[in-house]
Amino acid sequence: MRLKKLHLSNTEEFLSKIQEIADFSINQGDFQLNKSVTNSDYLGEIKSGNFIIYDAEKSFLGKRMILKFVGKIDKDNDLNLQFYVINLWVKVFNTSILLVLGILMIVYAYYLGGLFIIFALIQATIECNQIIKHRLRFLKKIQSII
């Protein structure tokens, strides 16, 4: 999904400042498997001016990945940012299971089925708000260093 196109005046300075925001020493695969400890909320990798940054949010079970930002710098010093929701299928699957169970339970247990539907709507709303909040927070950080 296309996020934003920003013009950079100095690409080397931007790349050095982006390394202050994110922890590039931890691999994303290691983080997901081992739950590596990092002080930064962002981790990722950088290759030849292009970068991938993952937004990790703190939760009661530890940090979990929310968003993936892909930044590419073209020949005109324009930064093209894209963002992706990590494990979107899990979020959709969880919400759809609650909705299906709620609809089926409305037939037999009206109040319990309605409660499942309300929980599904609350869960979907919270997930959407988290995605929007984290996307805006990252955009503000990027715009502050440009």
Protein described:
With 146 residues, the chain is an alpha+beta fold. The protein has one domain. It contains four helices and five strands. It has a five-stranded antiparallel sheet, with helices on one face. A hairpin with a 4-residue loop joins strand 4 and strand 5. The model has no long low-confidence stretch (mean pLDDT 83).
Mean pLDDT: 83
Q: Give a quick account of the main beta sheet: strands, pairing sense, barrel closure.
A: 5 strands, antiparallel
The poorly predicted ranges are none
Number of helices: 4
Molecular shape? elongated
Q: List the secondary-structure elements in sequence, H or E.
A: EHHEEEEHH
Percent strand equals 25-35%
Measured as a percent range, the helix fraction is 40-55%
The count of strands amounts to 5
- CA radius of gyration is 19 Å
Distance between the termini: 22 Å
Largest sheet, spatial ordering of strands: 1-5-4-3-2
Count of discrete structural domains: 1
Which class best fits the helix and strand makeup? alpha+beta
